[in-house]
Design a protein that fits this description.
The protein is mainly α. The protein is built from two helices and no strands. It is elongated, with a radius of gyration of 19 Å. The chain starts with 13 loop residues before the first helix and ends in an 8-residue tail after the last helix.
Amino acid sequence: MVMGTSVLSLRIDHELLQRLRHHAAKRGMSVQDYVVRTLVRDDFDERFQTAVDETERFYGSGDPVIK
């Protein structure tokens, strides 16, 4: 599968940009890489939680009874 790239431009205040720079620098990353990694991780967490919720709805959310 070939994935293309797109450009996303954001307007953020100076204080937030400084915090992003600080967090990125602690990880040896550029601000761009740090933000993308954070968004990907958040997207994964959201998709994983959705899958867990759907599984619980399918199987029921009660605890299994062990005899």
